[in-house]
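Changelog-linked ticket: calcium ion example.
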Amino acid sequence: MLIISNPKNAISIALNHGWYSSALSIDKYTTSETGPNPWATGSLYSDSGSKFRWNLPIPSAGPYQVYAWWTYHTNRSTTVPYRVRHASGTSTVVVNQRNSALAGQWISLGKYELAASGSYVEVSSENGQASADAIKLVPAESGAEGSEVVVDNRSAATARSGSWYVSTGKNPWSSDSVYNNGLGKFRWTPTLTKSGSYEVYAWWTYHSNRSTNVPYSVRHAAGTATVSVNQRDSSKAGRWVLLGSFKLDPSTAYVEVFSENGQASADAVRFVPMF
Ligand SMILES: [Ca+2]
C-alpha cells in the first residue's frame, strides 16, 4: 500500500512496501489551519475555481482502490468533485466535504484500472470551497490480502425475504438500491479469503419515508451484532457508513438489514480488512 500526501506535508508516507512519492501541483490552495484531523500534518483548501492534482506514480499497472482524505470546515462545499484519471478515461466522484462525519478519514473513491503512467487524482473547488489533503492507493488484485470486498444489492451473493422494490433514492452504490415498506430482510454474503478483523460499512439511499431506526445485523465469528441506523438522515445516505469492526469468519460472515421498524433501504455493504 502506498500513500501519497499533499506537498504541505512534504513527506509522503509508504506503508507495507516501503515505497513513496510526493504529490505535484498546487494552484491557489492555501493551508487550512483549522481543519481538524488532517492526514499527517496539514491540509489545503481553495475557495473557488482551482484544482489540486496528485500525480500517481503507479508501481505497476492494475486495479487499485483509490481513497481520499480531506478535512472538515463549515465553509466546505457539499458537492466537491474528485476526478480519477485511469486507464480508460476519467471518472468523477462527488463528495460532501461539509459532512463532518466523512472528514478526517479515508473515503473510497472507487476501484480503478490504473496505467503505469499518467494516472492522477484531482480535486476541484469549482462548486465552492474544497479541501485537498491526501490520496491513498491500495492494489486490488482479486483475493489479494488487504483487498476490500463490496457486495451490492444486485450481486448474486444476496438473499431476501419480503418485497424489495427498486428505489428512486439518489446516489446508489452501483446502479440502484432497493427498499421495503413491509416486513422483510435482505442479506449480503461476502467472499472473504481470511479470518480476521474487518471494518464493516453499509451504503443506503435516502428517502423521506425511510425509518429512523433501521437495524443491520452483522454475523461475526462469535455471534451476531445489531447496529441501528437512521436512514431518514440524508447526510448519512449515499456513502459508506461504518457499522463497526468485527472479527469475521469467511465461512459464516454476512450482513442483513431489516424493515421491521419501517421502510428500509438495501444497497451495498463493504468489508475492509484490518490486517
Ligand atoms: Ca446498489
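Closing comment: Example verified and attached. The chain has no helices and 23 strands. The domain at 2-139 is CATH 2.60.120.260 (Jelly Rolls).
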